[in-house]
């Protein structure tokens, strides 16, 4: 039986204990303040990042892992695995997927499958967790990849940024011409379409945006309560706890997780952002 490792990039923000429990390897993206580059999770924590964002003059930037770091990580995993499944954030918002593929093409003696999650954050993590569970059950890589592809149909994530200018500045907001002149006054509900971020609906206040996202979850959940749901926050742990507690009451059979927008995604969404992601069981 082929031994399969699962590797994901840091932007899946799977809480550390859960990631370690499932033996998912992680490769970090970088956040850059002026001349200083930090590997997120390893060299800068999420708390430190939001603190620095408030105090540093230069706004942060982000960068993908280098080909060299991918090669090193693959080589290490290849010491005790025959195959590697790599789950990356959407290729529409980062070059990470392409770099993972280029590095994979340079490796011999290990079979590497790079999967573009077409999303990011903990919804990306749901793909990695499924791959890890199936690998542990001894499923072959083709079956795992088939399941991951099927999951894409059922994956949903809606989010909002408290200050849209970060997304705009980083060039990751498509369809923003709809909002020219009012970027700071509106709180549109955002989502991924064809791998990129687009506004889903124009909403004026954060309260209405959150209510709309919860409404979308409600419509989609129907009677099917066995969902995996995640509340994702940009340095708003209390608010996330409050939303998660409400969701647990509403959907008692659901697995409700709390995750966060870490440094790299926080650079593009800014502090105060909120999102909810979910996936229905996929057969
Ligand atoms: C890079 O420099 O390669 C990383 C670029 C990351 C762009 C992030 C844009 C915001 C993504 C929001 C995801 C929300 C998912 C629920």
Automatic annotation (TrEMBL):
<dbReference type="InterPro" id="IPR050270">
    <property type="entry name" value="DegV_domain_contain"/>
</dbReference>
<dbReference type="InterPro" id="IPR003797">
    <property type="entry name" value="DegV"/>
</dbReference>
<dbReference type="Pfam" id="PF02645">
    <property type="entry name" value="DegV"/>
</dbReference>
<protein>
    <submittedName>
        <fullName>Fatty acid-binding protein DegV</fullName>
    </submittedName>
</protein>
<dbReference type="GO" id="GO:0008289">
    <property type="term" value="F:lipid binding"/>
</dbReference>
<dbReference type="InterPro" id="IPR043168">
    <property type="entry name" value="DegV_C"/>
</dbReference>
<keyword id="KW-0446">Lipid-binding</keyword>
């Amino acid at each position: 039986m082929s031994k399969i490792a699962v590797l994901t990039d840091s932007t899946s923000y799977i809480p550390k204990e859960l990631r370690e429990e499932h033996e998912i390897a992680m490769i970090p993206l970088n956040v850059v303040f002026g001349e200083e580059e930090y590997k997120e999770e390893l060299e800068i924590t999420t708390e430190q990042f939001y603190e620095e964002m408030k105090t540093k003059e230069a706004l942060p930037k982000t960068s993908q892992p280098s080909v060299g770091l991918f090669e090193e990580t693959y080589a290490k995993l290849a010491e005790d695995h025959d195959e590697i499944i790599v789950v990356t954030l959407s290729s529409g918002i980062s070059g990470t997927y392409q770099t993972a593929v280029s590095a994979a093409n340079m490796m011999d003696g290990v079979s590497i499958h790079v999967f573009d999650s077409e999303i990011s954050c903990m919804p990306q993590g749901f793909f990695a967790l499924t791959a890890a569970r199936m690998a542990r059950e001894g499923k072959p890589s083709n079956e795992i990849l088939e399941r991951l592809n099927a999951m894409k149909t059922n994956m949903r994530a809606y989010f909002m940024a408290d200050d849209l200018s970060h997304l705009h500045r980083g060039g990751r907001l498509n369809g923003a011409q709809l909002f020219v002149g009012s970027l700071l006054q509106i709180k549109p509900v955002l989502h991924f379409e064809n791998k990129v971020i687009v506004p889903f609906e124009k909403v004026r206040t954060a309260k209405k945006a959150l209510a709309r996202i919860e409404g979308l979850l409600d419509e989609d959940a129907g009677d099917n309560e066995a969902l995996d749901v995640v509340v994702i926050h940009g340095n708003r742990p209390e608010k996330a706890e409050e939303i998660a507690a409400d969701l647990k009451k509403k959907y008692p059979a659901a697995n409700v997780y709390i995750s966060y927008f870490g440094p790299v995604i926080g650079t593009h969404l800014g502090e105060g952002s909120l999102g909810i992601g979910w996936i229905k069981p996929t057969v």
